[in-house]
Specification:
Blueprint lengths: L1 E4 H11 L4 E4 L6 H10 L3 E4 L3 H15 L3 E5 L3 H5 L1 H9 L4 E7 L18 H6 L4 E4 L6 H12 L7 E6 H5 L1 E4 L14 H12 L4 E5 L1 H5 L3 H11 L3 E3 L14 E3 L8 H6 L2 E5 L19 E5 L13 E4 L2 H11 L9 H34 L5 E4 L3 H7 L11 E2 L9 H12 L3 E6 H4 L5 H7 L4 E7 L4 H10 L14 H7 L3 E5 L2 H13 L4 E6 L17
């Protein structure tokens, strides 16, 4: 315990937690924290253009690195701006913490109309976090920030928030900074491990379904070891992509919801689900069969049985649960041909998707994968190319190299990609639509300022392509509110201080994307979808040839 200001206590606590980057905007209600970080060193501040972007960047940073993502905002409007980012982080089970200011404690709760007064900020934050705390004395700062960070990282990660009145950030006090050990892991019971192993020992047709919890727990090695030992096909949720390289013969990818696999899933004697809550999109709203017996391993007891009733429930961190099962196994292995049959269906489905998206987008996808390093990050927004091939087909080859808005929000793509690129230092490709791109367009300036290694691919159909098709199908061909006037994105990028170029063919994309990968810093490609062979399925743009 030593004397320091409240702002210094925040800095010292973040250092103790291993934080290396924070994202946010300096404000009169958080400036003592930023000052302490600037003086202390060891933490890089990333100044964003909107607090929503700050939270999304902290989210992308956490997904790409596995570390705690931290955003620092102002009270009131700054905190409300960040709510969407907290909402998305909760959907994605991402380790994200917002530290926000609050008005001076002498005015707090009195409704006097003080600058940025936010009387109900704390209950607001609690609607999108698992834990939100308000500091009442400077002596509490280290303890409160550590407690929230620990909760964020325990079990299934969920975002958290801390508000600190600005006068307490300036105040000096004797403050203890807790020593942070490794974050706790949920230990499985011996009985649950025995039951899971017994189920697998008796199965000759086992399928594995893996979610993002496997990546969070850093259990990809155990997952792959178990899959190869069993010769079991591995399906993933979209968040679970990368738990096994998608060029591996046992990797089925995120295709669990395709009806062609129903026979494999129904025929399975055991489905082993690890680190997944079976979101609706991954299971055709819970109509995909889950075998004759379901074994479910998850760190969050609340998700086990919520969507599929398990025969064996193992409440456990994925890594500890898988390691325990592997140790308890005898020598089970799937019968010959079971995995091969699943692989045949996978290859047929992949080929079907390729035919659906058409030759131009197939070539663009292949160019992107070929030019991007194996450990490069593939970020997607909620946009037609992402739905049709980005989320399903382009191969993800390593963990923590794939991300998308799990909540299906449009707009997070650019800041997610920036957080990932800044945190990992790896080349990052962004698949973004023009509509969603406009929501965080200002973060191009952030990308340029920090020379983020990201290639921003804006697939431009001059509107909301997903809604355009839904409207036309639902309302007798009528469209409304979906046609957009879009700016010259290349011109905007250059005005922001970065390079870019327009693309009107698959061949042009191939050359331009390679230039973007080789470029030092961010690079934008404005891809005119109206000049490409339209994709089949959802969201084909109107022809403007």
């Amino acid at each position: 315990m030593r004397e320091m200001t409240g702002g210094e206590a925040v800095y010292e606590t973040l250092r103790a937690l291993g934080v290396e980057h924070v994202f946010g905007i300096v404000s009169v209600h958080n400036i003592p924290i930023y000052d302490a970080i600037e003086r202390g060193g060891g933490i890089k501040t990333i100044g964003v253009r909107h607090e929503q972007g700050a939270l999304h960047m902290a989210d992308g940073y956490s997904r790409a690195t596995g570390k705690l993502g931290v955003a620092i905002t102002s009270t009131g409007p700054g905190a409300t701006n960040g709510m969407t980012g907290l909402f998305e982080a909760g959907f994605a089970s991402s380790k994200v913490m917002m530290i926000t200011g609050q008005i001076e404690s002498q005015y707090y709760g009195k409704g006097k109309g003080f600058l940025h007064e936010a009387e109900n900020q704390l209950p607001m934050l609690r609607t999108v976090t698992r834990m939100a705390e308000s500091v009442r004395r400077p002596e509490e700062i280290g303890e409160v920030v550590t407690r929230v960070a620990t909760d964020i990282s325990t079990g299934r990660p969920q975002p958290g928030a801390v508000e600190i009145p600005v006068d307490l950030q300036y105040a000096r006090a004797n403050i203890d900074i807790p020593h942070v050990e490794a974050m706790p892991r949920i230990q499985p019971t011996a009985d649950a491990i025995v039951q899971a192993a017994q189920a697998l020992n008796s199965s000759k047709k086992t399928v594995i379904v893996a979610g993002g919890g496997v990546i969070t727990a850093e259990a990809t090695q155990e997952l792959r070891q178990l899959a190869e030992r069993l010769d079991a096909p591995v399906f993933t949720s979209t968040n679970g992509r990368g738990v096994i390289p998608e060029d591996h013969r046992l990797a089925m990818g995120p295709l669990l919801n395709m009806p062609a696999f129903d026979e494999v899933l129904a025929d399975a004697e055991v489905v082993l689900a690890v680190g997944t809550r079976f979101q609706g999109g991954s299971t055709r709203n819970w109509t995909s069969p889950m075998g004759q017996k379901l074994v479910h391993i998850d760190a969050d007891p609340g998700v086990i049985g919520r969507n599929y009733r398990p025969d064996v429930a193992v409440v456990s961190d994925a890594r500890l649960g898988l390691a325990g099962v592997i140790k308890a196994l005898e020598s089970p292995k799937n019968e010959a041909g079971f995995a091969d049959h699943a692989q045949e269906i996978r290859d047929e489905q992949r080929q079907g998707i390729r035919q659906q998206i058409g030759p131009d987008f197939e070539a663009i996808m292949d160019s992107m994968r070929a030019a991007l390093p194996r450990d490069g990050v593939i970020a997607r927004d909620a946009t037609v190319p992402a739905y049709l091939w980005g989320n399903r087909l382009i191969e993800v080859l390593e963990p923590r190299t794939s991300m998308h808005p799990t909540s299906a929000a449009i707009g997070p793509g650019l800041p997610l990609a920036l957080g990932a690129a800044i945190g990992s230092g790896k080349k990052t490709a962004l698949i973004q639509g023009d509509g969603g791109f406009m929501l965080n367009l200002s973060e191009l300036a952030t990308a340029a300022q920090y020379k983020a290694p990201v290639v921003i691919c804006v697939f431009n159909d001059r509107g909301y392509g997903v809604l355009r098709t839904i409207e036309a199908r639902t309302f007798d061909g009528r469209n409304f509110g979906v046609e957009l006037g879009t700016p010259d994105f290349v011109g905007v990028a250059k005005a922001m201080g970065m390079e870019g170029e327009g693309v009107g063919s698959a061949a042009e994309f191939d050359a331009a994307f390679k230039r973007g990968i080789d470029h030092d810093g961010p690079y934008l490609l404005d891809i005119d979808m109206t000049k490409l062979t339209p994709m089949g399925g959802l969201g084909s743009p109107p022809s403007r040839r």
